[in-house]
Amino acid sequence: MDVANQNGLLLKNRPARLTCLPQEARIGLLFLSLWLIGFVLLKALPILAALVLSLTDFQMLSPESTRFVGLENYIRFFGDTEAGASLFGSLGYFLLTVPLEMIVALVLAAIFTSARLKNKRTSQTLIFMTSIIPATSIFFIFLGSLAYADRLIFTPLNLPPIQGFGLLLPFMALWSIGPGFLIIYSAMESVPNEVYEAARVDGAGPFGRFFYITLPMISPAIFFTLVINLTGAFGGAVLLDRGYILNFSLSPMESYINNTMFLEADLGYASALAWITFAVMMTLTIFLFRSAKRWVYFPDENENEEI
Questions:
Q1: For residue 193, what is the DSSP state?
Q2: 8-state DSSP, 263
Q3: Which of 65-69, 77-81, 121-125, 215-219 has the lowest mean pLDDT?
Q4: CA separation (Å) from 218 to 172, 191, 213, 244, 275?
Q5: Fewest Cβ atoms closer than 10 Å to its Cβ: which of 14, 77, 233, 249?
Q6: Inter-residue contact 56 to 268 (CB < 8 Å)
Q7: Rg of the chain (C-alpha set)
Q8: pLDDT single digits (tens) 87-133
Q9: pLDDT single digits (tens) 142-168
């Protein structure tokens, strides 16, 4: 009888749970509705429109003469040496700035996780503030500072002027380090102290604990930051509204697409270039995900394999 009564109680409780699920789903959709509307109107539809425009010769100054050209814009890319150089330039920018960003973010996160450091919140805020200041302002401030340095220091000493744009790339990369720093810092904070204590007992020093404990355990955060930086290196930073001027970007490929779109008014070819850049980014991202199995530590998957 006890078992029967328990089964009866379970059956009575099931409808109540089932009736709650649709209500929770409605509430969840209500909170997501504004984001979903914005995603469809501002992201999904423009992406599909760009795919359609890439198959045409759409000119912004004469839209009435638009005609379907098929894959002609994509074939044109292979003969465009400037577009190819811009694409390789974005790849070089990625190889130059992303390792620098990752190293500096790791060093800063290791410093801020130290128990000896005081006023962590204020320092973290100052580091992240650099990422929300418009990049255009920083660009002109930096160039203005170089001009004063040339005028006050290098010119009186008969020294050659500083090549500002060459120094601009790593400087701007480090200036927007805030999000990556916070991601890696949060991952370091989540590493259990018991693991470090056990390593200390076994005789591991600070560098041994960092390279053999910290880095493997925060490898998912490093991987996520690497993918985000890859997107930014090829021009995806414009989606985060970093404040770049209309026809300028630290990504050579994004600058070339902007010039093709707004200066030459060739929206069809610019759309094709955007989709080619997207294909290259997806290829690199898939390669990173495939390689992640060898160097990224996923606790859930490892625990399931052990079980």
A1: H
A2: I
A3: 121-125
A4: 25, 8, 9, 31, 33
A5: 14
A6: yes
A7: 26
A8: 888 888 888 888 888 888 898 888 888 777 776 677 677 777 766 66
A9: 766 666 666 666 667 666 655 555 556
Tell me how far apart the alpha carbons of residues 86 and 84 are, in angstroms, rounded to a whole number: 5
Q: Which residue, chain included where needed, has tokens 């693991």?
A: 195
Helix segments in 133-177, DSSP class H: 135-149, 164-175
Confidence of residue 77 (pLDDT cuts 50, 70, 90): very high
Spatial contact of 186 and 224, defined as CB atoms under 8 Å apart? no
Three-state secondary-structure class, residue 252? helix
Residue matched to tokens 């000896």: 116
**pTM of the shown model:** 0.71
For the record, the structure tokens of 298 come out as 């996923």
Q: Is the dihedral of CA 49, 53, 58, 60 positive or negative?
A: positive
Domain parsing of the chain, residue ranges: 79-306
Token code pair at residue 173: 């990369």
> What's the CATH fold of domain 79-306?
MetI-like fold (1.10.3720)
Phi, psi at residue 205, to the nearest 5°? -85, 180
CB contact at 8 A, 111 and 117: yes
**Which residue from 189, 191, 183, 178 is spatially nearest to 124, judged by alpha carbons?**
178
% the chain with pLDDT above 70: 69
Residues contacting residue 160 through CB under 8 Å, at least 6 positions apart: 154
Q: 10 Å Cβ neighbour count for 93?
A: 21
